[in-house]
Automatic annotation (TrEMBL):
Keywords, alphabetical: Membrane, Transmembrane, Transmembrane helix
Pfam families reported for this sequence: Na_H_Exchanger
Molecular function GO labels: sodium:proton antiporter activity
Location(s) in or outside the cell: Membrane
InterPro entries per the UniProt record, alphabetical: Cation/H_exchanger_TM, Na+/H+_antiporter_fungi, Na+/solute_symporter_sf
One example of a Gene Ontology biological process annotation: proton export across plasma membrane
Biological classification of the source: Bacteria, Pseudomonadati, Pseudomonadota, Alphaproteobacteria, Acetobacterales
Gene source species: Teichococcus coralli
Protein name (Swiss-Prot/TrEMBL): Sodium:proton antiporter
Record-annotated membrane-spanning stretches: 35-54, 74-91, 111-137, 202-225, 237-256, 291-310, 316-339, 351-369, 381-403
The UniProt record lists the keyword RNA-binding: no
Major location category of this protein: membrane
Length: 421
C-alpha cells in the first residue's frame, strides 16, 4: 500500500469538489455526466494507471481494505441520513405499504436475480454467488443523489417517485445486512445453527438494535432541537451541523454495540426530520443536500476510482462483460416491472422502467464487499463486486441526465393527453 505526496492528493481531490460546488450542477445538466462519475474518473487519474499518487489494493492488503470499508461506511451513514432528511414529514408512515413491497419482495428479487446472473456468467460456487448477489442488491444513496436532486429532477420526476427512490436507497443499505450475513453464516455453521444465529444475532440484535437506537437518539435530538428553537434567546440551529453530528454519533454508538450503524443513521435522520418546522424544511433541505452530497459522499467515489483492480477485471474476460451487462439489465429492472402494481409510484410502465433502471450500485456494495472479504477471506469478492460498481457508475453516470429528460417529456405528454386537461 502506498500514497505518494499526500498533500498533492488532498489538493487534487478537494480541488475537484470545489469545482463541482462552484459550477452548481452544470456538469450534470449540460454535459450529461454525473458528479460521481467525474469523481471516479478523477480517482482513476490519481491511481496507478494515471499519476500514480495512490497504490491501494483492497483485494490483498488488509489495511487498504479497512480504509475502503470505513470510508464507505461513513459515506453511507451520511448519505442515508441525507436521504431521510429529504423526505417530507409523514411520508414514511403514509407510504409504508408500497415501501414494504420495495424493501421486501423487491430486495429479495434483486438478491436472487443478481445471484443468478453471477452464477450463469462467472460459474462461481453457489454460496459465493449468493454473497455477491447480496453485496450488489442494495441501491446506493451516494449515486442516487444526483439523479434525485436539482432543477432537472424537480422538473422531470413526480415528487412521489423521488421520495420513494430516496427512501428505498436510504433504507435498503442497512437492510441488506441480513442477506449478506446468511450465506456467511452458512459457510461456517450447519443450517440449523446458521439459521438460529441469523435470527437471534443478525435480525433481533443487529437490525433490532439499530432501529431502536436510531429511534431513541433521533427523538432525543429532535426534542432538544424543538426545545431550543422555542426559546426566544436561542440562535437558530444549523441542520447541517446537527444532522452531521447525529449521523456520525449514531453510527459510532451502534457500532460499539455491535449493531447495524447504517440503518440506525437512517432511522435517526427520519425521526429528526419529523421535528423540523414545516415552513423551514425546503430551505434547510436544499443547504443540507448540497453540503452532504458534495463534501462528504463524493470523496468515496474518488477513492474507488483510485483502487480499481484493472488486472483482475481483465482476467475475467468476456465473462466479466457478460456479468456487468447482466447485472445492469436483470438485477432490478424486471423486479420493478413485476411489482409495479403494488407500488403507487410505479403504476405506469414508464415510471417502473425509470425507477427500475435507476437503482445504482455504489458505496453500499463496496462496504459489503470488504465486510464479506474480512469475514470469509474470499479473494473473488472484490474483483467481481467492484466490476459491478464500476459498470453502474459508468452506465448511470452517462444516462442519468438523458433518461431523466426523456422521462420528463413523457410525463408532460401523458399529462396533456388526460381527458379534461
Amino acid at each position: 500500500m502506498m500514497i505518494a505526496e499526500p498533500w498533492l492528493l488532498v489538493f487534487c481531490a478537494f480541488g475537484l469538489l470545489v469545482a463541482l460546488g462552484t459550477t452548481s450542477g452544470l456538469l450534470n445538466t449540460r454535459l450529461s455526466v454525473s458528479e460521481p462519475l467525474a469523481c471516479a474518473l478523477a480517482g482513476i487519474a490519481l491511481g496507478p494507471v494515471g499519476l500514480g499518487l495512490v497504490h491501494l489494493d483492497p483485494g490483498t492488503s488488509e489495511q487498504a481494505a479497512t480504509i475502503l470499508r470505513e470510508a464507505a461506511r461513513v459515506a453511507l451513514a451520511l448519505a442515508v441520513t441525507a436521504a431521510a432528511i429529504r423526505l417530507p414529514q409523514g411520508w414514511l408512515s403514509a407510504h409504508w405499504r408500497g415501501l414494504a413491497v420495495a424493501l421486501g419482495p423487491g430486495m429479495l428479487g434483486m438478491w436472487l436475480a443478481s445471484t443468478a446472473v453471477t452464477s450463469l456468467t462467472l460459474g462461481l460456487p453457489v454460496v459465493t454467488c449468493f454473497l455477491i448477489g447480496a453485496a450488489v442488491a442494495p441501491t446506493d444513496p451516494v449515486l442516487s443523489a444526483p439523479i434525485l436532486n436539482g432543477r432537472l429532477a424537480r422538473w422531470a420526476m413526480p415528487r412521489e417517485l423521488i421520495n420513494a427512490l430516496n427512501a428505498e436507497s436510504g433504507m435498503n443499505d442497512g437492510l441488506a445486512l441480513p442477506l449478506v450475513m446468511l450465506p456467511i453464516l452458512l459457510l461456517g455453521h450447519g443450517p440449523e445453527d446458521a439459521g438460529l444465529e441469523w435470527v437471534v444475532h443478525v435480525l433481533l440484535w443487529e437490525v433490532g438494535c439499530a432501529a431502536t437506537v436510531g429511534v431513541v437518539v433521533g427523538w432525543l435530538v429532535r426534542s432538544g432541537l424543538l426545545w431550543a428553537e422555542a426559546r426566544p434567546d436561542a440562535d437558530r440551529a444549523s441542520l447541517v451541523t446537527v444532522a452531521l453530528a447525529l449521523s456520525l454519533a449514531t453510527l459510532a454508538g451502534v457500532r460499539l454495540l455491535g449493531g447495524d450503524g447504517i440503518l440506525a443513521a437512517f432511522v435517526a435522520g427520519a425521526v429528526l426530520n419529523s421535528g423540523i418546522p414545516s415552513e423551514e424544511i425546503a430551505e434547510r433541505q436544499e443547504r443540507f443536500n448540497e453540503a452532504f452530497g458534495r463534501f462528504f459522499d463524493l470523496p468515496v467515489m474518488i477513492l474507488f476510482g483510485a483502487v480499481i483492480p484493472w488486472q483482475d477485471w481483465a482476467g475475467l474476460g468476456w465473462r466479466g462483460i457478460a456479468f456487468a451487462v447482466g447485472i445492469l439489465l436483470l438485477r432490478r429492472l424486471p423486479v420493478w416491472l413485476m411489482l409495479r402494481r403494488f407500488m403507487p409510484w410505479t403504476r405506469a410502465r414508464p415510471e417502473a422502467l425509470f425507477g427500475g433502471w435507476f437503482g445504482p450500485i455504489g458505496a453500499a456494495a463496496l462496504f459489503y464487499a470488504m465486510e464479506i472479504q474480512d469475514r470469509t477471506g474470499l479473494q473473488t469478492i472484490w474483483p467481481v463486486v467492484s466490476l459491478a460498481v464500476g459498470a453502474s457508475i459508468l452506465a448511470h453516470g452517462i444516462t442519468g441526465t438523458v433518461f431523466t429528460r426523456m422521462f420528463g417529456h413523457w410525463q408532460r405528454r401523458a399529462f396533456q393527453a388526460e381527458p379534461g386537461e
